[in-house]
Protein backbone atom coordinates (compact mmCIF):
# COMPACT_ATOMS: atom_id res chain seq x y z
CA UNK A 1 0.00 0.00 0.00
CA UNK A 2 1.46 3.35 -1.05
CA UNK A 3 0.30 6.63 0.49
CA UNK A 4 1.61 9.85 -1.02
CA UNK A 5 2.63 12.94 0.93
CA UNK A 6 0.19 15.03 -1.11
CA UNK A 7 -2.68 12.66 -0.30
CA UNK A 8 -1.91 12.78 3.42
CA UNK A 9 -1.91 16.58 3.45
CA UNK A 10 -5.18 16.66 1.50
CA UNK A 11 -6.88 14.18 3.83
CA UNK A 12 -5.55 16.10 6.84
CA UNK A 13 -7.79 19.00 5.85
CA UNK A 14 -10.90 16.83 5.59
CA UNK A 15 -13.37 17.55 8.42
CA UNK A 16 -14.36 13.91 8.90
CA UNK A 17 -10.73 12.78 9.05
CA UNK A 18 -9.86 15.65 11.38
CA UNK A 19 -12.71 14.78 13.75
CA UNK A 20 -11.85 11.06 13.81
CA UNK A 21 -8.11 11.47 14.33
CA UNK A 22 -8.53 14.22 16.91
CA UNK A 23 -10.83 11.93 18.92
CA UNK A 24 -8.88 8.67 18.66
CA UNK A 25 -5.40 9.61 17.48
CA UNK A 26 -3.57 9.70 20.82
CA UNK A 27 -4.90 6.25 21.65
CA UNK A 28 -4.14 4.85 18.22
CA UNK A 29 -0.57 6.07 17.92
CA UNK A 30 -0.15 9.85 18.01
CA UNK A 31 1.51 9.44 21.42
CA UNK A 32 4.42 8.00 19.49
CA UNK A 33 5.16 11.56 18.35
CA UNK A 34 3.68 13.70 21.15
CA UNK A 35 4.97 13.56 24.73
CA UNK A 36 1.64 13.97 26.45
CA UNK A 37 -0.99 16.68 26.58
CA UNK A 38 0.28 18.54 29.68
CA UNK A 39 3.48 20.38 30.55
CA UNK A 40 3.91 18.18 33.61
CA UNK A 41 3.94 15.05 31.43
CA UNK A 42 6.43 16.66 29.07
CA UNK A 43 8.83 17.67 31.86
CA UNK A 44 8.75 14.13 33.25
CA UNK A 45 9.66 12.85 29.79
CA UNK A 46 12.54 15.32 29.51
CA UNK A 47 13.88 14.22 32.89
CA UNK A 48 13.95 10.60 31.75
CA UNK A 49 15.49 11.25 28.35
CA UNK A 50 18.18 13.48 29.86
CA UNK A 51 19.41 10.42 31.76
CA UNK A 52 20.26 8.85 28.41
CA UNK A 53 22.49 11.75 27.43
CA UNK A 54 19.87 13.40 25.21
CA UNK A 55 18.89 17.04 25.48
CA UNK A 56 15.51 18.46 24.47
CA UNK A 57 13.55 21.26 22.85
CA UNK A 58 10.03 21.55 24.26
CA UNK A 59 7.26 22.82 22.04
CA UNK A 60 3.71 23.54 23.16
CA UNK A 61 1.69 22.50 20.13
CA UNK A 62 -0.63 24.90 18.41
CA UNK A 63 -0.68 26.97 15.25
CA UNK A 64 -3.00 29.67 13.96
CA UNK A 65 -5.15 31.25 16.64
CA UNK A 66 -8.19 33.41 15.98
CA UNK A 67 -8.41 35.63 19.05
CA UNK A 68 -5.95 37.69 21.06
CA UNK A 69 -7.02 35.78 24.15
CA UNK A 70 -5.86 32.51 22.58
CA UNK A 71 -2.54 34.05 21.59
CA UNK A 72 -1.97 35.45 25.07
CA UNK A 73 -2.76 32.04 26.56
CA UNK A 74 -0.19 30.44 24.27
CA UNK A 75 2.35 33.08 25.26
CA UNK A 76 1.66 32.43 28.93
CA UNK A 77 2.24 28.72 28.37
CA UNK A 78 5.62 29.33 26.71
CA UNK A 79 6.65 31.50 29.65
CA UNK A 80 5.49 28.71 31.96
CA UNK A 81 7.66 26.21 30.10
CA UNK A 82 10.79 28.22 30.89
CA UNK A 83 9.75 28.43 34.53
CA UNK A 84 9.14 24.67 34.66
CA UNK A 85 12.53 23.97 33.08
CA UNK A 86 14.24 26.22 35.63
CA UNK A 87 12.35 24.71 38.56
CA UNK A 88 12.94 21.09 37.53
CA UNK A 89 16.52 21.50 36.36
CA UNK A 90 15.96 19.52 33.17
CA UNK A 91 18.14 20.19 30.12
CA UNK A 92 15.79 21.73 27.57
CA UNK A 93 15.13 24.86 25.59
CA UNK A 94 11.90 25.99 23.88
CA UNK A 95 10.50 26.30 20.35
CA UNK A 96 7.53 28.46 19.31
CA UNK A 97 5.41 29.19 16.22
CA UNK A 98 4.46 32.78 15.57
CA UNK A 99 0.99 31.90 14.27
CA UNK A 100 0.27 30.51 17.72
CA UNK A 101 1.22 33.90 19.16
CA UNK A 102 -1.12 35.90 16.96
CA UNK A 103 0.89 36.53 13.80
CA UNK A 104 -2.20 36.30 11.59
CA UNK A 105 -4.15 38.62 13.87
CA UNK A 106 -1.60 41.44 14.05
CA UNK A 107 2.19 41.15 13.52
CA UNK A 108 2.94 43.86 16.09
CA UNK A 109 0.76 42.13 18.68
CA UNK A 110 2.63 38.91 17.87
CA UNK A 111 5.95 40.71 18.32
CA UNK A 112 4.89 41.87 21.79
CA UNK A 113 4.02 38.30 22.77
CA UNK A 114 7.27 36.96 21.35
CA UNK A 115 9.15 39.71 23.19
CA UNK A 116 7.71 38.43 26.48
CA UNK A 117 8.93 34.92 25.67
CA UNK A 118 12.40 36.04 24.62
CA UNK A 119 12.70 38.13 27.77
CA UNK A 120 11.84 35.07 29.88
CA UNK A 121 14.40 32.99 27.94
CA UNK A 122 17.10 35.53 28.78
CA UNK A 123 15.94 35.82 32.41
CA UNK A 124 16.25 32.02 32.76
CA UNK A 125 19.55 31.96 30.86
CA UNK A 126 17.89 29.73 28.30
CA UNK A 127 17.12 29.80 24.58
CA UNK A 128 14.02 30.07 22.38
CA UNK A 129 13.84 29.13 18.71
CA UNK A 130 11.26 30.59 16.37
CA UNK A 131 9.97 27.90 14.05
CA UNK A 132 9.48 28.62 10.35
CA UNK A 133 6.07 28.14 8.79
CA UNK A 134 4.81 28.36 5.21
CA UNK A 135 6.16 30.92 2.75
CA UNK A 136 3.39 33.56 3.04
CA UNK A 137 4.60 34.05 6.63
CA UNK A 138 8.33 33.79 5.97
CA UNK A 139 9.29 37.46 5.54
CA UNK A 140 7.36 38.69 8.57
CA UNK A 141 8.83 35.85 10.65
CA UNK A 142 12.37 36.89 9.72
CA UNK A 143 11.56 40.54 10.41
CA UNK A 144 10.25 39.77 13.90
CA UNK A 145 13.21 37.52 14.57
CA UNK A 146 15.73 40.19 13.56
CA UNK A 147 14.11 42.73 15.88
CA UNK A 148 14.34 40.31 18.78
CA UNK A 149 17.88 39.27 17.86
CA UNK A 150 19.02 42.87 18.15
CA UNK A 151 17.45 43.08 21.61
CA UNK A 152 18.33 39.70 23.14
CA UNK A 153 21.28 38.36 21.18
CA UNK A 154 22.12 35.03 19.54
CA UNK A 155 22.65 33.31 22.91
CA UNK A 156 18.94 33.48 23.65
CA UNK A 157 17.09 33.34 20.33
CA UNK A 158 17.41 31.39 17.08
CA UNK A 159 15.53 30.61 13.90
CA UNK A 160 14.64 27.75 11.52
CA UNK A 161 15.43 27.63 7.79
CA UNK A 162 13.88 25.12 5.37
CA UNK A 163 16.08 23.60 2.65
CA UNK A 164 13.26 22.94 0.19
CA UNK A 165 12.99 26.67 -0.53
CA UNK A 166 15.04 28.21 -3.33
CA UNK A 167 15.73 31.30 -1.26
CA UNK A 168 17.19 29.38 1.68
CA UNK A 169 20.82 29.78 0.54
CA UNK A 170 20.50 33.56 0.49
CA UNK A 171 18.65 33.59 3.81
CA UNK A 172 21.34 31.50 5.50
CA UNK A 173 24.10 33.72 4.12
CA UNK A 174 22.38 36.87 5.35
CA UNK A 175 21.58 35.46 8.79
CA UNK A 176 25.13 34.15 9.03
CA UNK A 177 26.41 37.73 8.93
CA UNK A 178 24.90 38.12 12.42
CA UNK A 179 26.15 34.69 13.56
CA UNK A 180 22.57 33.46 14.03
CA UNK A 181 21.95 30.07 15.61
CA UNK A 182 20.01 28.22 12.90
CA UNK A 183 18.09 24.98 12.86
CA UNK A 184 18.23 23.58 9.33
CA UNK A 185 15.28 21.40 8.30
CA UNK A 186 14.04 20.08 4.96
CA UNK A 187 10.52 21.53 5.35
CA UNK A 188 7.12 19.92 5.84
CA UNK A 189 4.61 22.38 4.35
CA UNK A 190 2.94 21.96 0.99
CA UNK A 191 4.63 24.59 -1.21
CA UNK A 192 4.36 25.31 -4.96
CA UNK A 193 7.21 24.56 -7.37
CA UNK A 194 7.55 28.31 -7.88
CA UNK A 195 9.19 28.65 -4.46
CA UNK A 196 10.36 25.14 -3.51
CA UNK A 197 12.45 22.39 -5.05
CA UNK A 198 10.08 19.73 -6.41
CA UNK A 199 12.58 16.87 -6.24
CA UNK A 200 13.79 15.22 -3.03
CA UNK A 201 17.35 14.98 -4.35
CA UNK A 202 17.42 18.77 -4.83
CA UNK A 203 16.09 19.35 -1.32
CA UNK A 204 18.74 16.98 0.08
CA UNK A 205 21.59 18.60 -1.84
CA UNK A 206 20.48 22.03 -0.69
CA UNK A 207 20.23 20.79 2.88
CA UNK A 208 23.86 19.66 2.93
CA UNK A 209 24.94 22.93 1.27
CA UNK A 210 23.12 25.05 3.87
CA UNK A 211 24.65 23.22 6.83
CA UNK A 212 28.13 23.39 5.35
CA UNK A 213 27.84 27.09 4.50
CA UNK A 214 26.58 28.01 7.95
CA UNK A 215 29.27 26.01 9.74
CA UNK A 216 32.00 27.50 7.54
CA UNK A 217 30.71 30.92 8.61
CA UNK A 218 31.49 29.90 12.20
CA UNK A 219 27.82 29.86 13.17
CA UNK A 220 26.09 27.42 15.50
CA UNK A 221 24.07 24.96 13.44
CA UNK A 222 21.35 22.54 14.50
CA UNK A 223 21.41 19.68 11.99
CA UNK A 224 17.79 18.58 12.13
CA UNK A 225 17.36 15.45 10.03
CA UNK A 226 16.69 11.73 10.33
CA UNK A 227 18.29 11.00 6.97
CA UNK A 228 21.20 8.66 7.68
CA UNK A 229 22.82 9.37 4.31
CA UNK A 230 22.89 13.09 5.01
CA UNK A 231 24.10 12.50 8.57
CA UNK A 232 26.93 10.31 7.27
CA UNK A 233 27.93 12.90 4.66
CA UNK A 234 27.98 15.71 7.22
CA UNK A 235 29.81 13.71 9.90
CA UNK A 236 32.55 12.95 7.36
CA UNK A 237 32.66 16.54 6.11
CA UNK A 238 32.78 17.95 9.66
CA UNK A 239 35.74 15.74 10.48
CA UNK A 240 37.59 16.53 7.26
CA UNK A 241 37.08 20.27 7.73
CA UNK A 242 37.99 20.25 11.44
CA UNK A 243 34.71 21.84 12.51
CA UNK A 244 34.62 22.54 16.25
CA UNK A 245 32.23 20.15 18.00
CA UNK A 246 30.86 23.12 19.97
CA UNK A 247 29.46 24.60 16.75
CA UNK A 248 26.76 22.04 16.03
CA UNK A 249 24.34 19.46 17.29
CA UNK A 250 22.13 16.85 15.68
CA UNK A 251 18.39 17.19 16.19
CA UNK A 252 15.61 14.68 15.71
CA UNK A 253 11.94 14.46 16.49
CA UNK A 254 10.50 12.63 19.46
CA UNK A 255 9.37 9.20 18.31
CA UNK A 256 11.43 9.17 15.11
CA UNK A 257 14.64 7.13 14.74
CA UNK A 258 15.07 6.61 18.48
CA UNK A 259 17.84 4.08 17.93
CA UNK A 260 19.80 6.45 15.72
CA UNK A 261 19.47 9.21 18.32
CA UNK A 262 21.07 7.01 20.94
CA UNK A 263 23.73 5.69 18.58
CA UNK A 264 24.88 9.24 17.89
CA UNK A 265 25.07 9.95 21.62
CA UNK A 266 27.23 6.84 22.08
CA UNK A 267 29.52 8.16 19.35
CA UNK A 268 29.97 11.35 21.37
CA UNK A 269 27.71 13.69 19.40
CA UNK A 270 25.37 16.22 20.97
CA UNK A 271 21.80 15.18 20.18
CA UNK A 272 18.66 17.20 20.90
CA UNK A 273 15.17 15.70 20.73
CA UNK A 274 12.43 18.04 19.55
CA UNK A 275 9.60 17.16 21.92
CA UNK A 276 6.09 18.49 21.37
CA UNK A 277 3.24 18.30 23.85
CA UNK A 278 -0.24 19.69 24.21
CA UNK A 279 -3.86 19.13 23.28
CA UNK A 280 -3.62 20.82 19.87
CA UNK A 281 -1.42 18.12 18.35
CA UNK A 282 -3.34 17.28 15.16
CA UNK A 283 -1.60 19.62 12.62
CA UNK A 284 1.83 18.57 13.87
CA UNK A 285 0.88 14.91 13.76
CA UNK A 286 -0.37 15.07 10.18
CA UNK A 287 2.88 16.68 9.03
CA UNK A 288 4.82 13.79 10.59
CA UNK A 289 2.64 11.38 8.64
CA UNK A 290 3.14 13.45 5.48
CA UNK A 291 6.91 13.37 5.88
CA UNK A 292 6.82 9.59 6.13
CA UNK A 293 3.43 8.30 4.90
CA UNK A 294 4.29 4.77 6.03
CA UNK A 295 3.53 6.05 9.54
CA UNK A 296 -0.13 6.11 8.50
CA UNK A 297 -0.02 2.33 8.31
CA UNK A 298 1.24 2.26 11.88
CA UNK A 299 -1.90 4.17 12.94
CA UNK A 300 -4.20 1.90 10.96
CA UNK A 301 -2.65 -1.22 12.50
CA UNK A 302 -3.25 0.19 15.98
CA UNK A 303 -6.85 0.98 15.09
CA UNK A 304 -7.61 -2.59 14.08
CA UNK A 305 -5.98 -3.92 17.26
CA UNK A 306 -8.59 -2.11 19.34
**Mean pLDDT rating:** 87
Any idea what the CATH architecture of the largest domain is? Alpha-Beta Barrel
Helix content: 40-55%
Span between termini: 21 Å
**Principal-axes shape call:** globular
Sheet-strand content, in percent, reads: 5-15%
Low-confidence stretches: 1-5, 7-14, 16-22, 295-306
* Beta-strand segment tally: 8
Organism: Baia soyae
Binding site for FAD: 132, 162, 186-188, 200, 225-226
GO biological process, one term: L-proline catabolic process to L-glutamate
Binding site for substrate: 97, 287-288
Keywords:
TIM Barrel; alpha/beta; single chain; 13% strand; 2 domains; eight-stranded parallel β-barrel; 306 residues; disordered N terminus
Q: How would you characterize this protein structure?
A:
- The protein has 2 domains: 1-33 and 292-306, no CATH class; 34-280, TIM Barrel, CATH 3.20.20.220.
- The chain is an alpha/beta fold.
- α5 links the parallel β2 and β3.
- Strands 1-2-3-4-5-6-7-8 form an 8-stranded parallel β-barrel, surrounded by 7 helices.
- The protein is globular.
- The longest helix is centred in the N-terminal third of the chain and has 21 residues, at 68-88.
- The chain has helices at residues 5-12, 15-28, 39-50, 68-88, 107-123, 138-152, 168-176, 200-216, 228-240, 258-266, 282-291, 294-305, and strands at residues 55-60, 92-96, 128-130, 157-162, 182-185, 221-224, 248-253, 271-277.
- 40% of the residues are buried.
- The protein is built from 12 helices and 8 strands.
- InterPro entries: FAD-linked_oxidoreductase-like, PRODH_bac_arc, Proline_DH_dom, Proline_oxidase.
- It catalyses: L-proline + a quinone = (S)-1-pyrroline-5-carboxylate + a quinol + H(+).
- Its EC number is 1.5.5.2.
- Residues 46-298 form the Proline dehydrogenase domain.
Amino acid sequence: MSISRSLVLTLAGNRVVTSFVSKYGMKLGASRFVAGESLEEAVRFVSEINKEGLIVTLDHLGESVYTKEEAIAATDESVRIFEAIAESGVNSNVSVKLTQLGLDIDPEFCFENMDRIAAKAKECNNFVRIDMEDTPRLEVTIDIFNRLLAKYGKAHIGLVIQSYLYRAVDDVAKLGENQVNLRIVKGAYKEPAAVAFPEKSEVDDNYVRLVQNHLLSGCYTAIATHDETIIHILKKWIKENHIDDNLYEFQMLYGVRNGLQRDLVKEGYKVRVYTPYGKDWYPYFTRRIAERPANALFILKNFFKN
